[in-house]
Design goal:
The structure is a homodimer.
Chain A: H1 4-11, H2 15-23, E1 31-32, E2 38-39, H3 42-56, H4 61-72, H5 79-112, H6 122-128
Chain B binds a DNA duplex through residues 3-5, 14-17, 19-20, 24, 33-38, 55, 60-62.
DNA sequence: CGCGATACCTGTAATCATTACAGGTTCCAA
DNA sequence: TTGGAACCTGTAATGATTACAGGTATCGCG
């Protein structure tokens, strides 16, 4: 039986976050000590680990909730889980594309900056005039 | 003189967002009609355009505030502006690296999924067991 | 000039995922 | 038994919007 601090250390998840997950119903209410302190079992640690890992992988809380629901109903077809993972992967890929375009644009902006005064600063110019951008970001 | 809706359409920025920018002091208070409605001039459109473009490029509100301050004090050395752009570019590059690692991991997860039932779903397995990951994401 | 639809006004609360804080209680080791 | 760390609850803050409620202005059309 873990206290919340031990669970926190075991899962690298802040104490406040654990209590938050309980409040939003993502973590089940654990047992309590006589003095009303939370006492966790291994199943809590596993579930929290799953949640934290999902969060690290960028899944939203609601996506993780869905994944956990899918897990709880064991032996059902995993196509739904797979589809979620694919959707998420595609979203990440889109984000990478957008950020790459952005990085290139920032590079161009920086190259335009001749090192003079603000009146001739390429960075300011580009920010003020969308037409100086090479890509559509919107 | 634009009403707020016209400015909204001209800059592709929601009406609520324009009022929000005014509230936080990012946009100056515009003139008002007799009936107390906001009336904007071109300089507002330009400034809002600058702000929106900065946001699209991923600059935070406070970064944009700094940039605008630097701009307002014209003819001062643009090294500070340049440095901000560089810092931001580097942050974007870091984010791209992290997301690329993440995308690769999601790909591996998806490939592990044999298409069977949830009990054998690679996606669930990886989420539940950090050791199945190839990279450190934390 | 009057009417009605649309656009506008203010102020407040919600969103998302946490984190921080205040003020009080419990636990555990020395 | 005592002292300090860890715990408790409840509330508010973060960042950048967005949404809503309840009321007022504007504008084109007849």
């Amino acid at each position: 039986m873990y206290a919340i601090g031990a669970l926190s250390r075991a899962t690298d998840c802040k104490v406040e976050t654990i209590r938050y997950y309980e409040k939003i119903g993502l973590m089940p209410e654990p047992a309590r000590s006589d003095g009303n302190q939370r006492r966790y079992a291994d199943r809590h640690r596993e579930r929290l680990h799953f949640i934290r890992h999902g969060r690290e992988l960028g899944f939203s809380i609601s996506a993780i909730r869905e994944l956990l629901d899918l897990c709880d109903r064991k032996h059902r077809d995993c196509a739904a889980v797979d589809a979620m993972a694919r959707r998420h992967r595609d979203a990440v890929a889109d984000r990478i594309r957008a950020l790459t375009a952005l990085r290139d644009e920032l590079d161009r902006m920086i190259r335009r900056c001749a090192g003079g005064d603000v009146a001739h600063c390429g960075v300011i110019e580009v920010l003020g005039d969308h037409r100086l951008c090479r890509h559509d970001h919107g």
